[in-house]
TrEMBL record:
<dbReference type="GO" id="GO:0035556">
    <property type="term" value="P:intracellular signal transduction"/>
</dbReference>
<dbReference type="InterPro" id="IPR055251">
    <property type="entry name" value="SOS1_NGEF_PH"/>
</dbReference>
<dbReference type="GO" id="GO:0005085">
    <property type="term" value="F:guanyl-nucleotide exchange factor activity"/>
</dbReference>
<keyword id="KW-0344">Guanine-nucleotide releasing factor</keyword>
<dbReference type="InterPro" id="IPR051336">
    <property type="entry name" value="RhoGEF_Guanine_NuclExch_SF"/>
</dbReference>
<feature type="domain" description="PH">
    <location>
        <begin position="171"/>
        <end position="293"/>
    </location>
</feature>
<dbReference type="InterPro" id="IPR001331">
    <property type="entry name" value="GDS_CDC24_CS"/>
</dbReference>
<dbReference type="InterPro" id="IPR001849">
    <property type="entry name" value="PH_domain"/>
</dbReference>
<feature type="domain" description="DH">
    <location>
        <begin position="1"/>
        <end position="159"/>
    </location>
</feature>
<dbReference type="Pfam" id="PF00621">
    <property type="entry name" value="RhoGEF"/>
</dbReference>
<dbReference type="InterPro" id="IPR000219">
    <property type="entry name" value="DH_dom"/>
</dbReference>
<dbReference type="InterPro" id="IPR011993">
    <property type="entry name" value="PH-like_dom_sf"/>
</dbReference>
<keyword id="KW-0597">Phosphoprotein</keyword>
<dbReference type="InterPro" id="IPR035899">
    <property type="entry name" value="DBL_dom_sf"/>
</dbReference>
<protein>
    <submittedName>
        <fullName>Guanine nucleotide exchange factor DBS</fullName>
    </submittedName>
</protein>
<dbReference type="GO" id="GO:0005737">
    <property type="term" value="C:cytoplasm"/>
</dbReference>
<dbReference type="Pfam" id="PF22697">
    <property type="entry name" value="SOS1_NGEF_PH"/>
</dbReference>
Length: 293
């Protein structure tokens, strides 16, 4: 923040800033200042240090700070935008100059990855502690703390997919909480329309990426695009949506225990959905059930 973000306001370096980076500090750094502020207050650190003598109390620190740690979600959501901007401007003289002054071996992008690595590291540490604390006093709390951290990581992961949805007319933020997302084989069987269509639809499934919100289920088609020789970035082009207030679900489809049905308008439209495993199918069904009830 001192060596790069502040330098973007340094009048002596302004002429070195590439035009694509003008007024884009918030995109490049996301809410890094907020994350810095949280740790710099050292409340979390002190709480953890107080557990050196009583490791049983450690889980409580995480449970107590659950909301604070959600600032990482916001950071990770912005990460793809930040990376795209870095690919555009990362080799500019401005960044080289900042790096030279700081005498850093690594360039800025390596440091911008740190918060993402940090939030995924906490759950590994909690897992290790659980291994060492079988049936001790703090075990149940440790399990709860681990579940909390895994929940934050799942949210981070889901939201990074969600920002890649294209072609949806509405506002994704108004669809309620994103509960699940994932790829499935989907067959459709609609009462209306030509019978031929129905027969063809039976055999060849469509690959669809589903996003389950509290209010709506979105069906998207995943597209992977190569960006200037860099890693593939996935985007999800919107195909159709079902309001959760009007759908029904059939948990078992004859002949395949990985399939379930979602139907609309008294089975006028039926979507047969095949998960990659029975476990995954059951997780989705229980989430959908919760929404429906």
């Amino acid at each position: 923040l001192q060596g790069y973000a502040s330098e973007m306001d340094n009048p002596n370096l302004v002429h070195l800033i590439p035009s694509a980076l003008q007024n884009k500090k918030e995109i490049l750094f996301g809410n890094l200042p907020e994350i810095y502020e949280f740790h710099n207050r050292q409340i979390f650190l002190k709480e953890i240090e107080n557990c050196i003598e009583n490791p049983d109390l450690l889980a409580r620190c995480f449970l107590k700070r659950k909301e604070d740690l959600q600032i990482y979600e916001k950071y990770c959501q912005n990460k793809p935008r930040s990376e795209a901007l870095w690919r555009q401007c990362g080799d500019s003289i401005f960044f080289q100059e900042c790096q030279r002054k700081l005498d850093h071996k690594l360039s800025l992008d390596a440091y911008l990855l740190k918060p993402v690595q940090r939030i995924t590291k906490y759950q590994l540490l909690l897992k290790e502690m659980l291994k060492c604390s079988k049936n001790s006093e703090g075990t149940a709390e440790l399990e709860e703390a681990l579940a909390t951290m895994l929940d934050i990581i799942k949210s981070v992961n889901d939201s990074m997919h969600q920002i890649a949805i294209t072609g949806y007319e509405g506002d994704v933020s108004e669809l309620g909480k994103l509960l699940m997302q994932g790829s499935f084989n989907v067959w459709t069987d609609h009462k209306k329309g030509h019978n031929k269509v129905k027969d063809l639809a039976r055999f060849k499934p469509m690959q669809r990426h589903l996003f389950l919100y509290t209010k709506i289920l979105l069906f998207c088609k995943k597209r992977e695009e190569n960006t200037d020789g860099h890693e593939k970035t996935a985007s999800y082009s919107f195909k159709n949506s079902l309001k959760m207030s009007t759908v029904g679900i059939t948990e078992n489809v004859k002949g395949d225990n990985k399939k379930f049905e979602i139907w609309y308008n008294g089975r006028e439209e039926v979507y047969i959905i095949q998960a990659s495993s029975v476990e995954l199918k059951n997780t989705w069904i229980s989430e959908i059930r919760k929404v429906l009830t």
